Amino acid sequence: MAISYMRSLKSVTFPKEIARVIGCRTFAAGGGKAKKGSKGGGATDGPRVSSLSKEVKSTTVVGANILKDGTDPKVLPDSEYPEWLWHLLDKKPALSELRRKDLESLPYEELKRFVKLDNRARIKENNSLKAKN
């Protein structure tokens, strides 16, 4: 069946431009194997110098724009941001510290975190026991 289809295509004539596009096979730039030890960084592997001025860097959040036609957002004063934002990077107690504390005296958020971490630890332990058997 495929052979008869190919024979029927022989009688069809295509312009030379289409034949070039169809018959063209392209490869990635650089052709061949990468040099040993190279990371494929491109032509300039040295440190890149930013072309933005210090004034622009201090007044805008460079690279935070996710919209195609948008602009980078401006940096606002600290009072303009919500209070919870400043506590995102606070250190939270580890599971071992939570186990040492009295569970009845823990605040709700820490108790919730303790249950989550404890469940995760038990699941890991059960999985490691099953893997050894």
Automatic annotation (TrEMBL):
Stored InterPro entries: Ribosomal_mL54
Subcellular locations according to the entry: Mitochondrion
Record organism: Cuscuta campestris
Family membership: Belongs to the mitochondrion-specific ribosomal protein mL54 family.
A single Gene Ontology CC term: mitochondrial large ribosomal subunit
Pfam assignment, any one: Ribosomal_L37
Keywords: Mitochondrion, Ribonucleoprotein, Ribosomal protein, Transit peptide
Coiled coil region boundaries: none
GO molecular function, one term: structural constituent of ribosome
Protein known as: Large ribosomal subunit protein mL54
